[in-house]
Amino acid sequence: MQLRTDLAIERFAALPHGEGVSRQDEQRGDIQVHRVQVHTQKAARELGKDKGRYVTLCDRRLALSDTELQVQQELSCTLAEEIRPLLPEEGCVLAVGLGNRHITADALGSWVIEKLLVTRQLQLQLEHDANLPFRSVCAIAPGVLGITGIETAEMVRGIVDRVRPSAVIAIDALAAREAKRICSTVQITDTGISPGSGVGNHRMGLSRETLGVPVIAVGVPMVVYASGIIRDALSLLVEEAQAGEYDAERAVEGMVERVTKDALGELVVTPREVDLLLGRVASVLALGLNMALQPSLQPEDILMLVNDHL
Amino acid sequence: MQLRTDLAIERFAALPHGEGVSRQDEQRGDIQVHRVQVHTQKAARELGKDKGRYVTLCDRRLALSDTELQVQQELSCTLAEEIRPLLPEEGCVLAVGLGNRHITADALGSWVIEKLLVTRQLQLQLEHDANLPFRSVCAIAPGVLGITGIETAEMVRGIVDRVRPSAVIAIDALAAREAKRICSTVQITDTGISPGSGVGNHRMGLSRETLGVPVIAVGVPMVVYASGIIRDALSLLVEEAQAGEYDAERAVEGMVERVTKDALGELVVTPREVDLLLGRVASVLALGLNMALQPSLQPEDILMLVNDHL
Amino acid sequence: MQLRTDLAIERFAALPHGEGVSRQDEQRGDIQVHRVQVHTQKAARELGKDKGRYVTLCDRRLALSDTELQVQQELSCTLAEEIRPLLPEEGCVLAVGLGNRHITADALGSWVIEKLLVTRQLQLQLEHDANLPFRSVCAIAPGVLGITGIETAEMVRGIVDRVRPSAVIAIDALAAREAKRICSTVQITDTGISPGSGVGNHRMGLSRETLGVPVIAVGVPMVVYASGIIRDALSLLVEEAQAGEYDAERAVEGMVERVTKDALGELVVTPREVDLLLGRVASVLALGLNMALQPSLQPEDILMLVNDHL
Amino acid sequence: MQLRTDLAIERFAALPHGEGVSRQDEQRGDIQVHRVQVHTQKAARELGKDKGRYVTLCDRRLALSDTELQVQQELSCTLAEEIRPLLPEEGCVLAVGLGNRHITADALGSWVIEKLLVTRQLQLQLEHDANLPFRSVCAIAPGVLGITGIETAEMVRGIVDRVRPSAVIAIDALAAREAKRICSTVQITDTGISPGSGVGNHRMGLSRETLGVPVIAVGVPMVVYASGIIRDALSLLVEEAQAGEYDAERAVEGMVERVTKDALGELVVTPREVDLLLGRVASVLALGLNMALQPSLQPEDILMLVNDHL
To answer: Is there a contact between A226 and B226 if contact means CB atoms under 8 Å apart?
Structure first.
């Protein structure tokens, strides 16, 4: 059965509990924290997600407009606490904002990069070895193959070979199964970016295997696929109606086909005001990343330094 | 039964053929042209659309990327031929791009206005009465109440009172029922903009009654509502399964509710690359409007004059 | 003698002290506050500025990148204290961002409007008379004649007639004489916008006379004219060289002509990074205006409410 | 003597004709074509420009708004004819748009890249070796050190090592000495990008020496430095006034200092409507580059394919 989602937590929920996968849930105030670890190759194959660690933060306040500044900082803080242990203790970090910034559903990576505190140039611009209170951070938004003519993974590889960061953080827009996950969920994983994942369906992956350095992926679902949401509705109805020998699954496929046919491209479902939600989500993510990367700075200082470049 | 769509053609299809409404279809090459006229108040109430004329142009090529320039001009030309008869023979025309330009699904009006050929200032800048080969055209994008603090209809009214155009053309993003209509359909009507219509659910209407001049509305569906597309799928399944005494309608409502609950706002369904489709649709619409407003200019000249302002 | 500047303070400095004009200077920490009042029609003619009050705030920190958040709020606070006495005690205020947002040198008005707290819709959206702690504020950026085909003054007049604000605040980009004034000076006046003023050389003015309500103009110089800065240099050299019977003034004109000839349009002088300065200046201005308009809100709350709309 | 200009033609004019440099002028309709070749190391030192070939196209119509489409194509065609001989006969070409796109005076590179026809992905997306009528072209806009934390030259080097193009074309915004050159001049050179050149004063160069492949640089002056234009005016006056033993040069320096002091950063002189000129210049440059890179395509086809991605 086809389960199209980038969220480990949705895949895990869809399969019976098995060996090789462990899960741990936690409540931190209003934020739900779910940790999934895939231990074995076999479990990875069944789950459809690589071996490694996945942390999912769930909180509807992530993109709500009446979120007080204080709440936004609480969310960013929790995000920072989950990302920091995955980073090497020191060394330069390269942040990569994936996706096509001309497509709202795929623009999250670019938006977050815009608000990141970039510091690597300070080291380069000082003549002597200064002991700066900053971690060295650099950032790129490599676009997509259709716009640059260069595979994102090629471009990142070439820059990693020159810059030699100690780790890469990749930010990406995701697709989920359930509409309630859109803009209310953050997934953090040390498994990097898998081929085929993301709203953009990345052609090639970014991982320790391909880049030679740890890759931490951070993503937020911006859409669900219309086919998925329709299948869910139909499956519910079939259950309720106890359709008996009725070949429900085949009928379901036919219905999905009929209501989505002749549309111009893959249909996605998203909140009507997703463009506004995008901005708020990007701000919370960026602040959380900045807090993880610059533990010596206060949130207010980070906000001031970032706004200064806007 | 709730049928949420701004397209007269979809409302008409949903009701049994009755008195007070006439329909005429035509094929112009690859373009389907549907004309609906609502003659009586009674038919207007049943249809849920005001008395007047509705022309719908359907062509998948409207937003396809491999549309040759020649095809785009063919579409714009057909559009121009349908709009021109609805305009007064002479006199200034005010074009109004409705909607919130920060929300992709609602930005069509603003995008079209950006590519419109504006000429009214030429008359104002010449000292003597020149016999220009241009029609006087001016254009505004008044934004929305939540951004300006001013009702769109208030702003348009105030400007109409000063500028005294002979007609208003209002461009708007619409919602349809069927996904195949998205970015492949143009609706032109002399009934203006109804309260509650459009992706933005306009609070007040724009019509001859409220503005004192003819209002021609031009719109393209950019989204369908997720609830609508899910209901359609469920209804199909219910028909097929012949669920008997099963209270299908109530079950359907419950399913829609369950798969869309907890989402952040009204869910819409749209092609994933809608941002790219938006640009192409806006170009075709703008060229068609420019051709309708400036019959003495060649398409190549229009394109050159417009590009010059970009 | 041609003295092209929108700053009253520069015009005043260029003329001998005369009757009908009074001036008062004050130092508020690092901010210089200059007040000029033009009392008589005769003085207005000599000065080339309308009768009324002009307040000029000078502080290089207005646009410097290492300006701490605290300093920015100090500047905004001082700005608010000078604007507030010029506003009516209560009643709706319409903010108008003048200029062409596609031209950086003329975009200040639009940028400030984007960051203004707009509240008039709250009153419209509540069913009963609520006693809100907000002043009713609405905001528009009417563009320019060359883009809309409508005179800015026409558009503002039409909207003022419908909305009936108790005052109008017009924000505009100015031209100065001395380069040091660029992005370091704010001029506030109760005389409104004069015809011919601003980087855009407004064709028509906006004032109590033309709109029927008080018009407070707020502006910051973004450019100086190259011809002016060159004339100044030449005049200095002429003084130094004690050129005697040498017809210095005619020679000066000739030099200016020769070094600027054949350029594509009026040459302006501006800091190379003016686009970055523009953002900071717009932020400080917007915060100051918001503080003046919403005395019951704290700066932190204002910043949060405004960022929420971005 | 300090002569700040990126144009070889202005440096050449300022020095007496010497050995090791040859110059040839040509008139092609309304377009002036100047060719300068620097043959020896000694001449390179005196000229302040690297050994190699420089072609300068001069035509005021480059950015004028009433330039007919036909004229724009004539300019692009001439540009293409000068660039094509500098490119290898076959092999992939990497286009690099230099500069900071947030600063209008430095944004030309980014704007041109946006309008370039990118084709390398077509080869990558086809499974078998197809004989496409396209040259393989890819394009990046690497930003600047202050925004990414990565030296532009580092990033380009890393990408060149992965992609292995047969040549690089670098597009850059330049500074000139005379105001008449702004937006009316195109410089093409096979010497690449020199350290310190461009509006952005590049820290490191891009050349065959540093990248291992030929680098063709294409640039247009967007500004002149205010200090330069003022020095020119003063020098003219000094000549005229025959100031005798008057230490003119020292006085001139003093004047420049006095009229530009206290400004916020390096002052540049640019036409007031430079933002609009930028768009037109970028269009002409991009079309010329596309015509040079894709000799099998007609201009109309190029324009259609490019617009399709906008």
So the answer is: yes
